[in-house]
Each structure stands twice: as C-alpha cells, then as structure tokens.
Amino acid sequence: MYCYIIMKLQTVSTTENYTTVVYITDETTNWEHLPLNSSESYYIQQQIEKKVFTNTLNRYTNTLIIVYLDKGKSPTESRFLENCRMSGAEITNFCNRNKFSSIAVANESDKHNAANAFVEGMYLANYQFIHHRKDAATIKNALSEIAVLEDAMTKAELAELQHVLEGVCYARNLINEPLNYMTATDLANAMEKMCKESKCKVSVLHKSQIEKEKMGGLLAVNRGSIDPPTFTIIEWKPKNAVNKQPIVLIGKGVVFDTGGLSLKPTPNSMDYMKCDMAGAAGVAGAMYAISKNKLPIHVVGLVPATDNRPGVKAYVPGDIIAMRSGMTVEMLNADAEGRMILADALDYAKQYKPELVIDIATLTGALLYILGAHGIGLMSNTDHKDKQDLIEASHRVYERCHELPMWEEYRDMMKSDIADIRNVPNVAGQAGTITAGKFLEAFTDYPWIHLDIAGIAWNHSNNGYRIKGGEGSGVRLFYEFLKNRCQLKD
Fold first, then answer.
1. CB 465 within 8 A of CB 125
2. What percent of the chain has pLDDT over 90?
3. Homologous superfamily of domain range 8-153
4. pTM, rounded to two decimals
5. For the chain, N or C: smaller number of CB within 10 Å?
6. Mean pLDDT of the chain
7. Which of 339, 387, 438, 485 is catalytic?
8. CB 378 within 8 A of CB 441
9. Listed residue (176, 116, 121) closest to 148, CA to CA
C-alpha cells in the first residue's frame, strides 16, 4: 500500500541512439552542442521566435524534445524554478500519452538547478493513487524511469532528490486514503513502518497513555469517535547534529473531520475531509526525507491523531475542556477541533526545550478568503531569523508563506467569561485564521511558527505536478528549510 517509488532516477554519462531525450535550453544554449541537423535547428529557432517553447522531433527510433526556458516569464528565481517544474510536468504527460517508459534529461541551459526542478516536476506529475481501482494495471502511467546526464545532476544530488520526492508521494498516499483505511491507529502504524525503513526512532502513545498525559484536547475531540486516538513521536537524532536542542515539527492528524456536532455540509466540504490530516502527512514525509538523506540535524515530529465525529459521547458547544497545559478551554464550535489537539502537542513539545517549533495544519477555511489556493498562512511569536529563512525556503519550493499579524487585540477576541480561553473568536466571521493562531500561541513558551495549509493541502483538479487529491504540502518546505539551516550552521 505504501510503495512511494514512483519512478527510478539514475545518472548516465551518455545516451543511446534509441533513447528519448529532453533537452533543457535557454538563450545561452550552444545549439551546435545538440544533435540537430541544420534543418532541425532552423525549425526549433523558428518555433522559439513564435513563442512555442516545447517542441518535439520524431526520429522514429527515438524522439528529441526541446524545452526552451523563456527567462522573460521568470522575473524571479522562485518563478524560474516553478516554470521548470511545470515544464517537467508537461513532459511527463507527453511521455505517458505516448507510452514512453523511459526518458533522459540533459541540461543545456546555464542554470544548474534547472534540471533539479525539472525532474522534480516530472516525478511528482507521474504520481497516481489507483491501488483501489480494479483497472489499476491498465491505467498505470507508462513512464517509469528518468535518466539524467551526469553534467546536469550528480549521482548524489539525484539520490537526495529521489528521497525528498518519495517523502512527498508518501505524504500524498496518507492523505488520499479514506477513513476506512486510515484511522488514527492506521496512521500511527503507517508512520511506524516508514520509520523502520528510514531509521528514525518512533513511539506511539495509545489512549491509556494519552489519558495519563492528560491531553484533554485530543481526548475531547475523540469522544465522538468509535476509534481510539494516537499520539506519534518520531525522532531523528544523528551524532553529528548541528543543533544542541531539537527542532520540533507538529502535524495536525485529524484523519477525518465531520465537524463533530457543529456538522459540516457534505458537498465541497465534508466530502474531502480525509485531507484534514495533511499536516501530519507533511511532517511524516519530511521526517522520511530528512532521515533518508541523513541531514545532520536533530528533529522531532509530533502527530496527535483522531477523527472528529458527532458520536453519542461527542463534546458539545459550551463544554469546558481541561488541557494538558492546565489551561481550560470553553469549546464553542466542535468544528474548531484542530487547534484543540495541536494545543496538547504544543504543550508536550515544551519538554524538549526546543530551539524552534513549527506546527502545520489544515486549520481554518477562513484562510481561503485571504490567500485562496496559492499560499500558506504563517503566524509566529518570534522575529528570529529562522522565520525569514523559512519564508525564503517557501518561495524556493513554491509553497509560499505569507505572514499574518499577531496583534494582542486578536487574543482579546478569544477571551472567555468562564474558562481561560475559548476556541473560537467572540465576533463570528472576523479574523478566523489569525485568532486560531492566537489560540495556539497561548500554549507555547518557545520560538514558534504556525503554518496554515488549508488552501494548498488538497487539489480539486490537476495543475501540472500538483495532481488532483492530496498535495503533500510541507515535505519539500521543511526539507529545504532544514537543509539550508544545516549549511548555515556549518
């Protein structure tokens, strides 16, 4: 079920005459270096002048594909890399339409990182979630192997990329599984299996242990469910870690969200709420990539998990919940459940005395009114350089973060008359995303960043390498941020 190797990636020194090859080109390309005759070269140049930037030459024994990177469409490095990914996705779709099982990639542009982003787009565009379909064998994509010329990417670079992309596809698989295959216990079991392969340390707290930890938020959300909650702890602690205290990643693991007694409507809402554990999937996939690539950094992943149902013992609006931290919460909306389980995880993280904690969650539908499906809402209690580094990393991988204000007036909106805090603001419809962040902030005493991925966690249609269904958000972002942090600390 969790086979996340979508394609084999390998480096080669040369290509055979029968190999289909895609050449990445731009205005700096030495066209004489390409295996084109004079008429073919003239044809390609004419097409580029007509703004046709992807062209194919069918030689019957093989096909040459010329992709021209128009720098006029790439005013920033971030946009350039995204255009490379989208071009890669286009080539994957072409290969599958034409039943090509393999392809080689050559970089004839002056951008070394063009090949990395291009292959990234190709790989992720080839993802499929079809193992529940009877016709899976007949609809499976034909493309199964990418060979990259050694002067485009080194063997080490390609192996690193493969592990990151496997992590993304692993996260996508977790998100795409429906509740009857992905309960909180199933999620914990899947992460244990992943950790066995990637050599991470893992432990799972089950309901009796969660009760001993007095995780009132997680237990309250779980009260309406027939399935028990879990709390998974993943740790990667190499001997050569650059940090004395760990970075803690926390992922919201609501494996299905009905809204509880504050029931969601089904169309365009509850019907895709299996994705409400996308934060958990992002943390799991990131931990896989970090450990497989042996990043020299100490990282802990925490995943509180349950489903949210309106069962006979479900908590009701007006209930007062005693949290792990000792704070009490007046629960006034059962559909604001993600913050309840994250609050216990944020408090649990205090024992690590962390350098930084980042939580990631499909937390608020209100984020869609701010950023739509194009970005991540970022909130924080710190002006530490790590925050700016994370934002910069988000642009490089095109999971762009936009910072929202955390003014104290928003905390005032969360005041309760009968408890320490309420779980929704006292003015309905106002600042829903930010007040959710202020709620979480109340459970922190360390540098902390909150990422709301409600807008980008689930794709309602195909868009290049962003395949319909779970996106796997956070995996590439966390990896890029932590890799860069290791290099800065060297």
1. yes
2. 92
3. Leucine Aminopeptidase, subunit E, domain 1 (3.40.220.10)
4. 0.96
5. C
6. 95
7. 339
8. no
9. 116
